[in-house]
Design brief:
It is built from two helices and eight strands; from the N terminus they run βαββββαβββ. It is of the alpha/beta class. The strands form two sheets. It has a four-stranded mixed β-sheet with strand order 1-4-3-2, with helices on one face. A four-stranded mixed β-sheet has the order 5-8-7-6, with helices on one face.
């Protein structure tokens, strides 16, 4: 089995500029416009793991943001750091950093578009 079987995920947004600013601030990385006809799609180069390989912010006609049915967790050194950045960039905390026992710690954050994502760290 592959070390990380997740190979692609998209986070749907309504206001791309606002969403980009939020994610770039939280993860201290730069998103770049991807050439996809009919879609406003932004992602990261394969060399920048801070924002997650093959992660995309997507604005697509008829696809709303928010109301997650899947929760994506981003790995962090200490999730309280990214949690703090989230509120400064327009997001909000759904659940502050808490222990999940031997599996480390998580925080649950809601981005500027109403999407919830998780932060995970071992300390």
């Amino acid at each position: 089995m592959r070390k990380n079987p997740a190979v692609w995920f998209e986070i749907y947004v309504q206001d791309m500029n606002r969403a980009k600013k939020c994610y770039e601030s939280v993860f201290q990385g730069k998103l770049e416009k991807l050439n996809n006809p009919g879609l406003d799609m932004w992602g990261v180069s394969d060399g920048d793991d801070r924002l997650g390989r093959r992660r995309r912010l997507v604005k697509m006609q008829g696809v709303p943001s928010g109301g997650n049915s899947t929760l994506v967790y981003f790995g962090c050194e200490d999730c309280s750091v990214e949690e703090g950045r989230a509120t400064k960039s327009g997001g909000r905390i759904h659940k502050n950093k808490f222990s999940i026992g031997q599996y480390g710690f998580i925080s649950l954050v809601i981005d500027t578009e109403g999407n919830m994502f998780g932060l995970h760290s071992m300390k």
